[in-house]
Inverse folding.
C-alpha cells in the first residue's frame, strides 16, 4: 500500500511510470466495460444506423411516402423498389424510413416524459420518506392499477391520435415503474454515509438530491429507460395495428403491419409484413441489448 | 505518547480553560416502531435514553460501549442528523436541539463536523477529491475560487496527501487514504468540534495508529474538540481525556481517563476493563476477568430500574426497582449505580 504523502520524486516515477498518467475517470471505465459486451456494441451500431436512417429519411428515400403507383402494387423487392411495394404501389423502403421517425420519436419522447415524472415522484418519495412517500406511492399504485392498454384505447378514440398525443399518453401511463425504481434507489442512498456527510456540512436538500443521490442512481434509471423505449415502440405498433395509432397515409411501422394483415396480402406479398416486423424486432432487441450492456457498465460492483 | 511535562502542561491548560463548548442535558432519541396496516406507532427503540455530559473546549471525550448501546445514534443526534426526542444540546451557548435545517446551516453546521466509520461509504464515488473537498466551502459561500484552491492544497497538506491526486476518484484510494480525505473534508470549514464515529474501526491496525496520530496532531494544531465514539477501549484510552461508558442508551460512568481505566467504579465498567488484555508485569496483580452473563437486552424493552441489573454481578433488589441517579461520586467522576 503506497501511503505517499510527499511530492512524487524522480525515483518513484521511474519505479512506477503510471503515477503521472491521467487517472481513470468513471467515463473511461464505463466505456471500457461497455465495449467488452459484444451484443451491446452490435445493438448500438444497429440502433445508430436505424436512427440515422430515420433522421435523414428525406435524403435517403428514393420516393415520396405518399406517392402511389397503382400499376406497381404489391411488387416483390427489386432494383426499382428495394423492399417491394404495398397495396397502393407505395415504396416500402421509403415508408419504413418515415415510419421509423414516428416510432422512434414516440419512443424517445414518451420515455423522456416518463422519466421526468417518474424520477420526480420517486426522488421526492424516497428522499423525504414518511407521509410524502406514502401519498406519492399510493398515487403510483392507483396509476398502476388502471389497465393501461384499455386506457390508451379509450383516450386515443376520444382524442385524435397525433404524435404529440401519443407521446403524452404513453408518458402518463409508463412512468410508474421508473418512480418505484428511483424511490428504491433513493431510499438506500439517502442513508449512505456520504449523504449524511453532506447533511452535516449543511448542503441543501435539492443539492443533495441532484448532485449526490441522483448521479449514483443514474445507472438503473438509464437501463430501465432503454428497456422502456423498446416497450413503448411495441405499444405504439400494437395501437397502430388496431388502427388506433397515427392514421394513414403517415406511415408508422405499426400501421404498415396493420395494412399488411390481410390474408391475401400475407400470401401473395410476404415481404410487405416482413420488413416492418423485422425493423420493430431489431429496434427493440437493440434497445434491450444496450440496456443490458449499460447495466453492467454502470454497475460499480462488476469490475472490468 | 507525550512526555510527562507536556502532558501536565496540556492538562493545566485545559483546567484553566474551563469553558464548556458543548453541554448535553438529558438527551433522548427514541425511534418509533411502526406496525400494522395504518403504520401506527406501537412502541419505541430507546436508542439514546438520557445522556448528560459536558465537553470542554480542546479536550477529547471518548464514548465507549458495546455494539447497539446507542453510541453512534448519540453522535448523530449531537450533530443533528437525527431529531432529538427530548433534551437539550447546547453548543457554544446556543441550544441547537430544536433548530430547523436553515437555522442550523446559518449557525452551527460550520462549527461541528463529523468523521464517519466506513471510509468506503462516506465519500461519493462519483466525485473527485477536489469536488468532495470544495463542497463544504461552496455550501457556505466561503472564499473565492482561487482561495478555495489554496485551501484544498492546504487541507491535503494537513492530512499528508499528495496534491497531485486532486482530480482522482475515491475508488483509487485505500481505506486509510480515504479516511484521511474524510478528515480533510471535516476540516474544510475550520470547525471547533469534530464528532468521530468509530473513525478507525474499519481500518487495519497499522493504519489505525496513523489516523489516530493524525487526529491528535490536528487537535494540537487547530485546537479542536473531539467526541470520539468507539468500541475499542485501548484506542479510546489512547486518545481521550475523559471517557463516558454507555450501556443501553445511558451513560453508566463518566470520568477522567485515568480514573476510569485505573479505578472503574461501575460494575459494568469493571467488567469492560477486565476484558482489556494487559501485559504481564512483575509485581502487578493479574486482574480477575469478569464475564457478563446473557445478552444486551432489547432497547425496545429495556429492563426496569437500573438497565444493567439483569447482567450485573452485584445487583440487589433495589436495582430492579429504582433507576439509579447519575451522580458525581468524586470530583469529575460520575456514576449511575446504587452502590455509591
Amino acid at each position: 500500500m503506497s501511503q505517499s504523502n510527499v511530492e512524487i520524486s524522480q525515483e518513484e516515477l521511474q519505479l512506477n511510470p503510471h503515477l503521472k498518467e491521467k487517472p481513470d475517470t468513471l467515463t473511461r471505465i464505463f466505456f471500457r466495460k461497455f465495449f467488452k459486451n459484444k451484443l451491446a456494441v452490435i445493438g448500438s451500431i444497429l440502433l445508430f444506423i436505424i436512427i440515422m436512417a430515420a433522421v435523414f429519411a428525406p435524403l435517403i428515400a428514393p420516393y415520396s411516402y405518399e406517392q402511389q403507383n397503382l400499376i406497381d402494387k404489391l411488387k416483390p423487392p427489386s432494383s426499382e423498389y428495394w423492399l417491394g411495394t404495398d397495396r397502393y404501389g407505395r415504396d416500402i423502403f421509403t415508408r419504413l424510413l418515415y415510419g421509423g421517425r414516428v416510432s422512434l420519436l414516440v419512443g424517445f419522447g414518451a420515455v423522456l416524459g416518463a422519466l421526468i415524472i417518474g424520477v420526480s415522484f420517486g426522488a421526492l418519495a424516497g428522499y423525504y420518506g414518511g407521509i410524502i412517500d406514502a401519498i406519492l406511492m399510493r398515487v403510483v399504485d392507483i396509476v398502476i392499477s388502471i389497465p393501461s392498454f384499455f386506457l390508451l384505447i379509450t383516450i386515443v378514440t376520444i382524442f385524435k391520435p397525433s404524435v404529440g398525443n401519443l407521446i403524452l399518453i404513453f408518458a402518463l401511463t409508463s412512468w410508474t415503474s421508473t418512480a418505484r425504481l428511483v424511490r428504491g434507489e433513493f431510499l438506500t442512498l439517502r442513508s449512505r454515509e456520504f449523504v449524511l456527510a453532506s447533511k452535516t456540512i449543511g448542503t441543501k436538500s435539492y443539492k443533495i438530491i441532484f448532485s449526490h443521490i441522483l448521479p449514483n442512481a443514474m445507472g438503473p434509471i438509464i437501463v430501465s429507460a432503454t428497456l422502456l423505449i423498446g416497450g413503448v415502440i411495441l405499444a405504439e405498433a400494437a395501437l397502430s395495428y388496431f388502427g388506433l395509432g397515427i392514421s394513414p397515409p403517415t406511415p408508422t411501422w405499426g400501421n404498415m403491419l396493420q395494412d399488411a394483415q390481410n390474408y391475401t396480402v400475407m400470401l401473395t406479398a410476404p415481404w410487405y409484413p416482413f420488413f416492418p416486423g423485422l425493423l420493430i424486432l431489431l429496434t427493440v432487441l437493440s434497445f434491450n441489448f444496450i440496456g443490458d450492456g449499460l447495466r453492467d457498465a454502470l454497475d460499480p460492483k462488476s469490475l472490468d | 505518547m507525550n512526555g510527562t511535562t507536556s502532558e501536565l502542561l496540556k492538562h493545566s491548560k485545559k483546567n484553566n480553560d474551563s469553558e464548556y463548548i458543548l453541554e448535553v442535558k438529558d438527551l433522548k432519541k427514541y425511534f418509533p416502531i411502526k406496525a400494522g396496516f395504518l403504520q401506527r406507532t406501537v412502541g419505541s427503540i430507546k436508542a439514546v435514553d438520557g445522556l448528560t455530559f459536558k465537553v470542554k473546549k480542546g479536550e477529547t471525550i471518548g464514548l465507549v460501549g458495546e455494539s447497539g448501546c446507542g453510541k453512534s445514534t448519540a453522535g448523530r443526534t449531537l450533530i443533528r442528523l437525527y431529531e432529538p426526542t427530548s433534551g437539550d444540546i447546547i453548543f457554544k451557548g446556543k441550544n441547537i436541539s430544536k433548530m430547523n435545517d436553515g437555522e442550523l446551516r446559518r449557525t452551527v453546521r460550520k462549527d461541528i463536523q463529523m468523521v464517519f466509520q466506513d471510509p468506503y461509504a462516506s465519500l461519493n464515488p462519483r466525485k473527485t477529491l477536489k469536488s468532495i473537498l470544495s463542497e463544504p466551502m461552496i455550501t457556505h459561500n466561503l472564499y473565492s475560487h482561487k482561495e478555495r484552491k489554496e485551501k484544498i492544497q492546504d487541507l491535503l497538506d494537513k492530512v499528508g496527501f499528495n496534491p497531485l491526486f486532486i482530480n482522482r476518484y475515491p475508488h483509487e484510494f485505500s481505506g486509510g487514504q480515504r479516511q484521511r480525505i474524510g478528515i480533510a473534508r471535516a476540516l474544510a470549514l475550520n470547525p471547533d468540534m469534530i464528532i468521530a464515529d468509530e473513525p478507525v474501526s474499519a481500518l487495519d491496525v497499522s493504519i489505525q495508529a496513523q489516523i489516530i496520530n493524525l487526529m491528535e496532531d490536528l487537535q494540537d494544531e487547530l485546537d479542536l474538540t473531539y467526541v470520539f465514539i468507539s468500541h475499542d477501549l485501548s484506542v479510546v484510552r489512547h486518545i481521550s481525556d475523559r471517557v463516558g461508558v454507555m450501556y443501553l442508551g445511558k451513560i453508566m460512568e463518566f470520568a477522567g481517563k485515568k480514573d476510569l481505566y485505573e479505578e472503574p467504579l461501575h460494575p459494568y465498567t469493571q467488567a469492560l476493563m477486565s476484558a482489556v488484555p494487559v501485559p504481564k508485569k512483575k509485581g502487578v496483580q493479574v486482574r480477575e476477568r469478569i464475564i457478563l452473563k446473557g445478552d444486551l437486552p432489547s432497547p425496545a424493552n429495556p429492563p426496569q430500574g437500573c438497565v444493567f441489573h439483569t447482567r450485573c454481578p452485584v445487583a440487589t433488589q433495589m436495582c430492579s426497582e429504582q433507576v439509579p441517579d447519575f451522580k458525581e461520586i468524586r470530583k469529575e467522576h460520575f456514576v449511575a449505580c446504587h452502590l455509591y
Notes: Residues 248 and 296 of chain B are 8 Å apart (CA to CA). Chain B touches chain A at residues 39, 76, 79, 81, 101, 104-105, 109-110, 112-114, 116-118, 121-126, 135-136, 139-140, 160-162, 164, 167-169, 171-172, 174, 176-177, 182, 185, 189, 210 (CB under 8 Å). Residues 8-17 of chain B have pLDDT under 50 and may be disordered. The two ends of chain B are 34 Å apart (CA to CA).
